[in-house]
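Email to the structure team, subject: DUF2007 domain-containing protein model.

Hi all, the expression group asked for a predicted structure before they design truncation constructs. Nothing fancy, just the tokens so they can compare against earlier work. One-line instruction: predict DUF2007 domain-containing protein, return tokens.
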Amino acid sequence: MPHVIAHTSLMLPEILVIESLLGAHGIRFVTAGKDIVTQCPHFAVHFGGISILVEEDDFENARTLIADTRDVPGYKSIESDGFEKHPIRNAVLTFLVLIMGAPFPFWYRRAGLA
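Reply from the structure team: attached below.
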């Protein structure tokens, strides 16, 4: 049975609550991106956040359950709007994080070993 995205979020606690909600109602789901965000939370935006996928037959029930939860005031402005206002700056910062996290100096070779 194919899966469809029922919900996507940048916040791990929100995903954990939704997983519990779906599990309590017997809706089978798959969580994509949770491992990346758990290991490197600063990459959440760049990998598109964490997505919960459900089977097509359960999609409407899942969306109804998720929609019943209240939105946090200002939630969109906390994460999404800040990133979308300065995409170039955030791309440069991500590049710098990747470079600084790389083994240094990876290009260095001794003169006699070449």
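The beta strands are 3-9, 29-32, 50-55. The chain has five helices and three strands. Ping us if the truncation boundaries need rechecking.
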